[in-house]
Amino acid sequence: MAKKEPKTDLWVADQLKDCGIRFDAQGSDVKEIDEALKTASKRGTGRVGYPEYTAVIGDFVIVIEDKASIDRQIKMTDSGILDTSVNAVMDYAVNGAYFYAKHIAQHTPFKKVFAIGVSGDEKHHVITPVWVDDREGYKMLPDIESFISFSKQNIGEYYTRYVLNEATDVEKTTEQILKDAAQLHEYLRTYGTLKDQDKPLVVAGILLALDEIEFGGFSLGSLTGDQVDGNRDGDKLMNAIRTRLTRSNVGPDAKKDKLLAEFSILQTSFRLNEVNDTLAKTPLKFYTEFLYEHVFRNIKYQKTSEDFIGRFYGEFMSYSGGDGQTLGIILTPRHICDLMCDLVDVQPNDTVLDPTCGTAGFLIAAMHRMLTAADTDAQKRNIKKKQLHGYELQSNMFAVAAANMILRKDGNSNLECCDFLKMNPAQVQLKGATVGLMRDRIPCRIVATARLRVVETLVFQRFAWCIRGR
């Protein structure tokens, strides 16, 4: 019978190449592994059996099996353990990869082995890694978006974080991140002479650009301080941001244009793009390197409801001589966001709306809770794509919120920059929100009107309104 996965095979191979992972197809150039595979038949006959791909990366081995249909990603037994029957090993990607990985771990000197099952295609796919030991043990690991975690530069950190469950050198507490924020605030003031409202936009924009590294759409080395129009550091960052928004399916075009307009200070600021004599590089490159080392890698791997960009925002405002309220900014602490989600008992099948979302703290807390309780990958994808909605009046806050959600792979980021109080109630109701989360960030003189408007506009099953003290 002809193999049904040629397109999936080619897509996986391309992804491995993009991540700089050297691999072998249908066997291995490593003698010990190749010898072991000569007795690795999935049918248990003791004859030859070859996985789709193998790769040796330092002390680690990764074994990949793929299937064309997402329905063939993984099969568990009724007891909730990985099915190791012949049919399951033959027909499912994760089960097949686990079979080969265990065989390699048991019959070669390599004891640090990852089995990776892949199904689907370029547009719709699932990638599930499993840690395998040389006995009968294994550890299911979170699904991943790409193979970048298994590159030579990242695999050690990935192993430490997800297999050993230990903090890595780049994993920090919120307290440490806030210390970094204080330092970055000083750098932004000293080298960029930025206005308070522009600082978080610079941070959010750079983080979006950094998120393109894993796709090959941006690199730190590309920031050279070139002063030719169209090739300046700010131009390169904006190109990466534009690509990141497209990759996240941010639309319609008017929304994308609004976000790009907010981040355009990266291009328009002469000071940010000029090579600084003290730094011997542009402030933009200096900020980008700082954010990559001190913040980005933490946010990238962090599975928490903490609103890191929001915390940055608050820290910037506090160092500017206030708590941000002069700019209409009142940031909700994480524990309050989590409490509100607990009070209304947010569930994976809910649709959540925050009419005044700020930096999206409530939505991030809700998303974290929903994803943790979700049963299937399809349900998780639906949560990110369709079940989180927010409105924000201030365009700079809207841009920070959108970046905050996109960095957490929320799909198309269902946020709108508009005045909720002026929305057509019927149009808002089309979102089908079952849970409302809101903090009183509205000036006192119109609070009563705003609350009445919420009641008139939406009929939530459950609603939590956090009112700040006066």
UniProtKB/TrEMBL annotation:
<keyword id="KW-0949">S-adenosyl-L-methionine</keyword>
<feature type="domain" description="DNA methylase adenine-specific">
    <location>
        <begin position="305"/>
        <end position="410"/>
    </location>
</feature>
<dbReference type="GO" id="GO:0009007">
    <property type="term" value="F:site-specific DNA-methyltransferase (adenine-specific) activity"/>
</dbReference>
<dbReference type="GO" id="GO:0032259">
    <property type="term" value="P:methylation"/>
</dbReference>
<dbReference type="GO" id="GO:0003677">
    <property type="term" value="F:DNA binding"/>
</dbReference>
<dbReference type="InterPro" id="IPR051537">
    <property type="entry name" value="DNA_Adenine_Mtase"/>
</dbReference>
<dbReference type="GO" id="GO:0009307">
    <property type="term" value="P:DNA restriction-modification system"/>
</dbReference>
<dbReference type="Pfam" id="PF02384">
    <property type="entry name" value="N6_Mtase"/>
</dbReference>
<dbReference type="GO" id="GO:0008170">
    <property type="term" value="F:N-methyltransferase activity"/>
</dbReference>
<protein>
    <recommendedName>
        <fullName>site-specific DNA-methyltransferase (adenine-specific)</fullName>
        <ecNumber>2.1.1.72</ecNumber>
    </recommendedName>
</protein>
<keyword id="KW-0489">Methyltransferase</keyword>
<keyword id="KW-0808">Transferase</keyword>
<dbReference type="InterPro" id="IPR003356">
    <property type="entry name" value="DNA_methylase_A-5"/>
</dbReference>
<keyword id="KW-0680">Restriction system</keyword>
<dbReference type="InterPro" id="IPR029063">
    <property type="entry name" value="SAM-dependent_MTases_sf"/>
</dbReference>
